[in-house]
Design a protein that fits this description.
Order of helices and strands: EHEHEHEEEEH
Number of strands: 7
Strand content: 15-25%
Strand order of the largest sheet: 3-2-1-6-7
Shape: globular
Structural class: alpha/beta
Largest sheet: 5 strands, mixed
Distance between the termini: 12 Å
Radius of gyration: 15 Å
Number of helices: 4
Helix content: 40-55%
Mean pLDDT: 95
Low-confidence stretches: none
Amino acid sequence: VVFFGFTQCPDVCPTTLQEAAEAMKMLGPEQAQRIQVVFVSLDPERDQPEMLEAYVKAFDPSFTWLRGDESQTRAAAKSFRVFYEKVNPKSGGPYTIDHTAASFVFDSQSRLRLYVKHAQGAKALAEDLAKL
């Protein structure tokens, strides 16, 4: 399960990772051990390795993350057709990032099998993963 996001995200990213964590619990340890959730940072400027490690592990200790430089991030997002754009708030303060809010599920042969919409729910995700 691959999801593109950023650690400073106020809603979509933590919701998605929480649903994935709940789905893993619903699957049980035997099935969950066959699934890898990967969080891909869209914000290499702020998402440092220590921060990413703490962030993803807070949802589930088995979750992992990837972070590249700006050009690697752009290339990865493009290959997945993930939209993202840095947005500076008009009122000032730190920037945020608008981005595609979906996850990609690959099978054990690295074939894309599912495009999971945001807020589909942990139960639906667990059912889909169990079928795969």
